[in-house]
Amino acid sequence: MNCVGHIHHGLWKHPRDNSVDYHKPAYWTELAQLLERGLFDAVFLADIVGVYDVLGGGIEVTAREAVQLPVNDPTYVVPIMAQATRHLGFGVTANLTYEHPYLFARRMATLDHLTSGRVGWNIVTGYLDSAARAVGLKQQFDHDDRYDRGDDFLDAFYKLLEGSWEDGAVLADRERGVYADPARIHRVWHEGPYYKVDGVYNLTAPSPQRTPVLFQAGASQRGNRFAARHAECVFTGAPDRAGLARIVANIRALAVEAGRRADDVKVFSSLSVIVDRSAAAARDKYEDYRRYASAEGALAHMVSGTGVDLERFGLDEEITDAKLEALYPDRLRRVGEARAGRFPPGTTRRQLLAARPFGSQQQPLVGTPSQVADEIARLVEETGVDGFNLTRTVAPESYRDFIELVIPELQQRGLYKTAYEEGTLREKLFGAGQAHLPARHHGASHRSWQRSAA
Ligand SMILES: Cc1cc2nc3c(=O)[nH]c(=O)nc-3n(C[C@H](O)[C@H](O)[C@H](O)COP(=O)(O)O)c2cc1C
Hints:
two-stranded antiparallel sheet; binds flavin mononucleotide; single chain; TIM Barrel
């Protein structure tokens, strides 16, 4: 993420952590080259619009612990990293609620051109009222409405990127003096419940992938249905293997219901790893990092997505549904069941803090290279997950440790590639010749020029 504190809050204070340099180009080029050395498929850039201002009704903890504030725009670091690498992909998060498909399609296509087809879009719909207020709304749209808007947004987006310019519309023919053939560039009309595009031509010529690889990260059932229709990659997380297996199975079943194949959607689980050559050294490293972690930062992060100001509860006061209902009567409709369910019966503020010893609800996997590889292999086997999204702890040390210690171990076991394939990000993830959305993806149905040419 293009900011200081991302998931494991407080670790920016560690003397070897360099995330305070997030605004310098060298931070990004060095990171990209390191990840490419580790043969990572992509660097995933989370993002947030709005600030975490719910805990205590302000940004006291957020600012002190740099909880995703300040945050720079994630798109601009992509060309910088692309310039310094050849294969690494880029998963860029953008909240569609505050974009318009016409301009956003141009931004994504531009990135796809500049990276030779290495771009993905992590589609999010947001969860912060502060973002809505920042653009003049009273509060966010309701949870399911946000996904309904997303469906409509994507239809317009596909029409622009898939349906406007035919393959071969760009001739760049100096002799005939024809750059692009106007007969092969089509107007786009879209009149949906939320977005309207009135007979315009898309601004950009087809980029290598046309539509960027579509990622999605949502935890509700409405979010999973949205993923089943649009996403090619889903980013998720669960506290244990059984929970992860349920999420993976649910997404695959919903994809099939939506007319796709179960393996058309790849599922990546978040994972943080602290590894060293011996178990004792790994444990010491964990303890060293942990001294800097901020459970309060983690709480400021978490509660903002639920809209619940926990400082309205005593440290040991039970947070019951009845109290939440009295304080926030429209909570479920506003935040969805995934976030509303974050206060199971018996929860207190003290417990929530204690459950975040490493500045996040996510606990790292701590061990030797072979212990970490064993657990990764078990996760894949028992849950059906396709891969992992490695969360930084102390950066870039945690990436370097993983690359130098765990990846060789995974390679020895035949569980990790030893070289990149050629091609776009979509081809690297789904195979040669698959630069574009497959024909059975909903977005491909908007290539109307293909139907009329057939
Ligand atoms: C693993 C994971 C990662 C996410 N990353 C982001 C992010 O970077 N930026 C963002 O605005 N929302 C992010 N979200 C939020 C969702 O994309 C979604 O908009 C929000 O959670 C509400 O939908 P839901 O109720 O379906 O989860 C993430 C969610 C999950 C589960």
